[in-house]
């Protein structure tokens, strides 16, 4: 649980060099998907979630549950029982990305309930994915992370750096690959100014 503004701020911050961080439980509004993260359906779901979150924020304005976060986060994972282990450094190059699972998310206060979500779901008329939005609870625990600046394609160079840092500090990946998109983006947009936190749950060995 985020208990103060500094802790919440730390959750959305990272350095340009790898580091070890730890986070407690968090609550999200989210939508799941499968397949290549650059697909049209991926971007449709991302926009739909952003639009839905605007309505959720509006519905809770001037209440104890009010919030102003709109930062998109995405959790990625493979079914490793089928693909085998997929490490940090080669996450996007080991397995066909059509096998990728993802959860597009926006962090919300832990006081928001499923009833709050359902009220908004029933009120929106033009959101094709409204019935697919759900609460998601996740405890990151120990993680390694780094701030990646620039196009997403450059992550193929940044993630091996994060992998080496994990190896040097005797950590192994145990959870999903987590990306926090600090700069809003749309399909086809210039990516030169993007800032993305790359974060992976790990355990000491």
Q: Approximately how much helix is present in the residues?
A: 25-40%
Indicate the CATH class. Answer: Alpha Beta
Order of helices and strands: HEHEHEHEHEE
Number of helices: 5
CATH fold field value: Multidrug-efflux Transporter 1 Regulator Bmrr, Chain A
> What share of the residues does DSSP label as strand, in percent?
25-35%
Instruction: Describe the main β-sheet briefly.
Output: 6 strands, antiparallel, barrel
Which segments are poorly predicted (pLDDT under 50) over 5 or more consecutive residues? 1-5
The whole-number mean of residue pLDDT values reads 93
**End-to-end separation:** 27 Å
Question: In total, how many domains does the architecture comprise?
Answer: 1
- Rounded to an integer in angstroms, the radius of gyration calculated over CA atoms is 17 Å
CATH superfamily: Regulatory factor, effector binding domain
Biggest sheet strand line-up: 1-3-2-5-6-4
The structure class reads: alpha+beta
In total, the number of strands is 6
Assembly context of the chains: single chain
CATH hierarchy: architecture: Alpha-Beta Barrel
What does this entry show, briefly?
This protein has 205 residues and is of the alpha+beta class.
How are the SSEs ordered, and which strands pair?
Elements: H1 5-11, E1 19-34, H2 40-59, E2 72-77, H3 80-83, E3 101-108, H4 114-123, E4 134-149, H5 155-168, E5 171-181, E6 195-204
Antiparallel strand pairs: 1-3, 1-4, 2-3, 2-5, 4-6, 5-6
Helix pairs in contact: 2-4
Word description of this protein:
- The chain has helices at residues 5-11, 40-59, 80-83, 114-123, 155-168; strands at 19-34, 72-77, 101-108, 134-149, 171-181, 195-204.
- With 205 residues, the chain is of the alpha+beta class.
- It has a single domain (5-204), classed as Regulatory factor, effector binding domain (Multidrug-efflux Transporter 1 Regulator Bmrr, Chain A, Alpha-Beta Barrel).
- The longest helix has 20 residues, at 40-59.
- It starts with a helix and ends with a strand.
- 29% of the residues are buried.
- The model is unreliable at 1-5 (pLDDT under 50).
